[in-house]
Amino acid sequence: MSFELETASDRAGLRRVAIDPVSRVEGHGKVTLLIDDAGEVQEARLHIVEFRGFEVFIQGRPYWEVPVMVQRLCGICPVSHHLAASKALDRVLGVPRLTPSADKLRRLMHYGQILQSHALHFFYLASPDLLFGFGSELGRRNIVGVAAAEPEVARRGIGLRRFGQQVIEATAGKRIHGTGAVPGGVNRHLAEADRRRLADESATIVAWARDAVQLVRRLHEADPILYDSFGREPSALMSLVRPGDGALELYDGVLRLRDADGRIELDGVGDQDYRRIISEEVKPWSYMKFPYMTHLGPERGWYKVGPLARVQNCEFIPTALAEVERRAFRDYAGGAIQHGPLAYHWTRMIEMLHAAELIDRMLDDPDLTAGERMADGERGHDGVGIIEAPRGTLIHHYTVDDDDLVEWCNLIVSTTHNNQAMNAAVRRVAREHLSGRTIDEGLLNHVEVAIRAFDPCLSCATHALGRMPLIIECVASDGRPLQTLVRDS
Amino acid sequence: MSETARFLLDGAPVPFAEGQTILEAARAAGRYIPHLCWHPDFPPHGSCKLCIVDVGGRHLSACATPAVDGATAASDTPEINAERRALLQMLFVEGNHFCPSCEKSGLCQLQAMASELGMTTPRFNHFYPDRPVDASHPDVLLDFNRCIYCELCVRASRDKDGKSVFALTNRGIHKHLVVNAESGRLGDTDFAADDVAAGICPVGVILRKRVGFAVPIGSRTYDTRPISAVSMDREEP
After folding, report:
1. Between A60, A182, A403, which is nearest B214 by CB?
2. Does one domain contain both A22 and A125?
3. What CATH code would you report for B6-76?
4. Mean of the per-residue pLDDT values of chain A
């Protein structure tokens, strides 16, 4: 099936504008716009041009190697893949419940990941657009520009990220691509020296995270029309929630789907049953699949994941300061579900505060520094691990044969769930901000701002941060080049 | 030959006893010469060539060359170490050595040697051979991707365990490790996890199953000490 503006009715004679690659996101993707002679956008697509082979080349490898290998999918949130794979393999080993020490150490690692990734995205990637304006001077739209104009904001952003990375290092052994989790548990405790060092700073980190929420909130309140409507496309919301009370749950829970109006459509779906509710559609123009709720079909069944979904899907946030901010977010819209992509930033900072509070609260727990690390169970062959990664619901599914080798693997990464939502936002922005106008870099950045709000990890692979090369070519309907904008890397 | 016989290694005198090789004498004198296929419990093998030294302009395997009174050998020189790096680079590209997700990382002599000798790139084109793992044994996994043909497992199984489970077959670039079973699978041999051969592999071919990353990366043998120091204490693994 095809959505409005997904495919032009007659593609011949339309001029093509490409944003390739999309910048200040993780991974590599491009946007193509087909524009008619009147300047109206007739087609808009976000293409994912990276090919991931992990699902295939993990086949035939021993299962205990998987959590370490698959985390190489990503250099920004490797902990998420590391833990989702470990959770799936816990199931294969017949260990549905970890020891208290293992559960808490993995959670601490995960909260460090949420904290550092959210800080990275907001301060390094997104804040230049929000602080300076979408069409502001290109040379300022980066973290260096933020540091020059708002040195305290930049300093705290860097500090928040650094603290999250230190939590990861203390629990996984390295800031990036560590090896803390193993199927059935963890391979280390938190060292007492690390615990003390983190505890010395955690209250400050909570305060900084709280201020970051206020910063985003002020941005929303200063320009509510833009923030509420920019790229807005209502959809359902999916995330894990805590079983029983529906609290925000980032590490282990049950799936919940809330429809665009806020009604709970599905609830309490166990992680091992994800295939009962989620299907995936393939489109010829993108390497990224389009997941949808099976019972609603691809046209009506697409949904959003990530902070915007999680904060609005849960009944409450089980830490005090973040819950106050969740209520303020809800009250801002009078209790209605907010669908504008820019609201992702606000909810992302609420989650960052939640992660900071959780870390602060956990650091006194004696189970982190001592106690049994591994659990046993009755070996099976099939396991699913679902975790709320910084960008949204992350699903790892493996089958393992009698010889301990992986037979089959299915990964649905967070950004994949948001594929249709991002495309819908791109089309909305193209229609409302680009159609009928002379396109320049600033206008094209509007498209990127919409994509960036979802914090996509387009390839889920490592990449160099910084200025990516950008070439925008406008070609007339007769093939004549009209305009070329080049930004060097 | 008297007990005071000496040769010069990198300009310093090394005493030796009759019958000792250059490598053995150097080791007894506390001098490290890089090696992979040599092991103190087995006769010299001379296949990895990492222990080459320059003796009178000839590059000889120190593990297989008898020490000679008054000889001069050069080991730790830019030329010899460059040759060793090239040998390592060839070993790396012949197999599939993906250290970032290898459970032997930090315990692997090939990796440790590359670090010791400052190998920073593979330099040559990778062969990317297709070598499926053999997981048929209940306790031990064979990952042929990492074999460097040192034959330590072949020798240990034959000479220590009395089983001859392993052998190298074919020649030249087609050489590869096989097991002694009609099916070609380890599970159909009499190999056992407590065989000497099960613990002798200097790289990540012969692995105890379900151990993986139980010991954290960062606290393993070669994570904390260079192979030149570890090797003088004892032979890993």
Report:
1. A182
2. no
3. 3.10.20.740
4. 89
Query: What does the alpha-carbon distance between residue A62 and residue A401 come to, in Å, rounded to a whole number?
Result: 10
Question: Which contiguous run of DSSP H or E holds residue B94?
Answer: helix B78-94
Q: Are A173 and B217 a contacting pair at CB < 8 A?
A: yes
What is the domain extent for residue A206?
Answer: 100-232+340-374
Domain boundaries, chain B: 6-76, 96-233
Cβ-based contacts of B214 with chain A (< 8 Å): 182, 187
Contacts of A179 in chain B (CB under 8 A): 213, 216-217
CATH number for the domain spanning A182: value is 1.10.645.10
Residues A45 and A118 in one domain: no
Complex ipTM above 0.90? yes
pLDDT tens digits, residue range A309-319? 999 999 999 99
Domain B96-233 class in CATH? alpha beta
* pLDDT by 10-residue block (mean), chain B, 237 residues: 81 96 96 96 95 97 97 97 97 95 96 97 94 97 97 98 97 93 97 98 97 95 96 72
Say if residue A118 is in the same domain as residue A225. Answer: yes
Report how far residue A468's alpha carbon sits from residue A137's, in angstroms, rounded to the nearest whole number. Answer: 16
Asked if B108 contacts B204 with a C-beta cutoff of 8 angstroms, the reply is yes
pLDDT tens figures, A364-385: 999 999 999 999 999 999 999 9
Nearest to A459 by CA among A286, A246, A282: A286
| A459 falls within a domain | yes
Q: Which residue in B has a C-alpha nearest to residue A400's C-alpha?
A: B135
| Interface contact A60-B133, CB threshold 8 A | yes
Instruction: Point out the residue among A178, A187, A405 whose CB comes nearest to the CB of B214.
Output: A187
Interchain contact, A405 vs B135, CB within 8 Å: yes
Q: Which of A374, A391, A421 is the last residue of a domain?
A: A374
- In this complex, do B101 and A188 lie within 8 Å of one another by their Cβ atoms? no
- Cα B207 from Cα B107, distance rounded (Å): 11
Strands, E, within A211-356: which ranges? 236-241, 254-258, 264-269, 278-281, 290-293, 303-304
Nearest to B213 among A61, A68, A403 (CB): A68
